[in-house]
Amino acid sequence: VDLEGFEREMAGQKTKARQSGKFIMSDDLVKWETVHEGPHSAFKGYETLQVESSLAFIGEDQEYWQLVFAETPFYGESGGQVGDEGKILAGSVEYPVVDTQKMNDRIVHFVKKAGQPPQKSGHFQLRVDEKRRRNTACNHSATHLLQAALRKVLGEHLHQSGSYVTPERLRFDFTHFEKISDADLQKVEQLVNEGIGQAVPVCTLVKDYHDAVAGGATALFDEKYGDQVRVVTMGSISQELCGGTHVTNTAQIRVFRILSESSVATGIRRIEAVTGEAALALYNQERADLNEVTSLLKADTHQVVQKLTNLMEEHNKLQREMAKASQGQASDRIKELMAEVRTAGNAKYIVARVDGFTMEQLREAVDKLRDAMNSGVAVLGAVHEGKVSFVVGVTKDLTSKVQAGSLIKAVAAETGGSGGGRPDLAQAGGKDASKIDSALQIGGKMVCELLGK
Fold it and tell me: Are strands 55-60 and 64-69 parallel, antiparallel or unpaired?
């Protein structure tokens, strides 16, 4: 194959396509066409959520039309913030925007393919989903308050290592060397809510990068910044370099609630949280759950913890009594089993079904039977709470004839189960309880054959 020649021809075809204004296939398998030469992707979304604009590029793949406009209010996903959704109007035709991505220097609007493709001439009305943007802004601004609170509670060593902001929730990753205590998490949550309650104006200014950092603005350690940066300031609480969308006053966030704190890597912790409507919905759900619990317990709210504590203590006491009674019954059953011991060759053996025994009780029974037989093999099977279990024990003097691991595999296989263990002790689980008797019969036959050799 002449690869060099093929590549030359492909390059020539692409050049001709560009010159003729036809679609070309880029490396990411998207066909792009230049509709209008000139500036594009001017972001107006800080000031407005509606813009009239003209089409600069149109692309398509198998699922989407990808539209790039001269101006747009749509935020393209970047800096940990998801892209906007909304709609584009071309006359009476409406195109739902399902995602917006920032690709190099282009803000690309994704429109699901349906009906006719967008017209290339004329003007379009671009409208961002206002509620979705507002919720996203609340969560993004909350991450700034969260970082400030974390640094105040845990120390200045803490730095952001990543974030993900959606309309539904926020995720914030940061450097820290240990799990955060519940008490410290409560302090952090309280500090964020105090910042919200203070109704602090959120100001944004474009500054020289070095001036912004020198003025105390927090920057991401591994982020690359241009000469001019956008500084988002929340009074004396927070000052960060950020290109995302934010509320104009912290009071708009309404409320902040931490959902979880966890480890995502060595030295990296993660907090997930909700704000606004999602946080209020969580409070309402918890209140409904608490009301249901108080109703079930027939107790007032302030009595719930003590009532549950008393119930747990009573439950644990009953569990201990039941375990003691079960142990006594198991001991009695083991004594009865000694009467069922048989002989094969010069050794003793027992094969028995003891329903109700747990795996632990089966192992204990086998140990006692081996000790009592002095030289022998014990094969026990049981069904306990619907689960099939087997244990095989062999005294060490007989392991040259009978291997517990091999024997139990054959027994368990009859019930669709499997297991294994040492030559002198093995256990297994089964699936089909209706075949436990036939499984034990197989075990008994194998023991007799092996011991009779």
Answer: antiparallel
d(CA 340, CA 369): 11
Per the CB < 8 A criterion, the answer to whether 365 and 356 are in contact is no
Question: For 218, which DSSP code?
Answer: B
- 3-state SS, residue 453: coil
- Residue 216, pLDDT > 70, answer yes
Rounded CA separation 218/318 (Å): 58
- H helices, E strands: number in the chain: 9, 24
Among all chains, which residue has been given the structure tokens 């690359």?
Answer: 224
What is the rounded distance in angstroms from the CA atom of residue 29 to the CA atom of residue 62?
9
- Measured CA to CA, the distance from residue 368 to residue 150 in angstroms comes to 58
Architecture, CATH, for domain 3-128:
Beta Barrel (2.40)
pLDDT, position 70: 96
Sheet holding 418-421, edge to edge: 342-344, 347-353, 376-384, 387-394, 425-430, 418-421
pTM, two decimal places: 0.71
Q: What does the CA dihedral 113, 115, 116, 118 come to, rounded to 10 degrees? A: -50
What residue spans define the domains of the chain? 3-128, 134-283, 336-451
- Stronger pLDDT, 449 or 335, i.e. the higher one: 449
Q: What is the CATH number of domain 134-283?
A: 3.30.980.10
CA-based nearest residue to 113, from 76, 157, 67, 82: 67
CB-CB contact of 84 with 45 (8 Å): yes
CATH 2.60.34.10 describes domain 336-451: no
Please tell me the predicted confidence (pLDDT) of residue 113.
Answer: 92
The Cα–Cα gap between 112 and 96 comes to 7
> What distance in Å separates the CA atoms of residue 427 and residue 390, rounded to the nearest whole number?
6
Averaged pLDDT of the chain: 89
Q: Which amino acid is at 123?
A: H
Q: Which residue shows structure tokens 């204990």?
A: 364
Pairing relationship of beta strands 170-175 and 268-275 according to DSSP bridges? antiparallel
The torsion angles phi and psi of 54, rounded to 5 degrees, stand at -115, 155
Percentage of residues in the chain having pLDDT higher than 90: 66
Can you tell me which residue has the tokens 């009573």? 314
DSSP, res 83: P
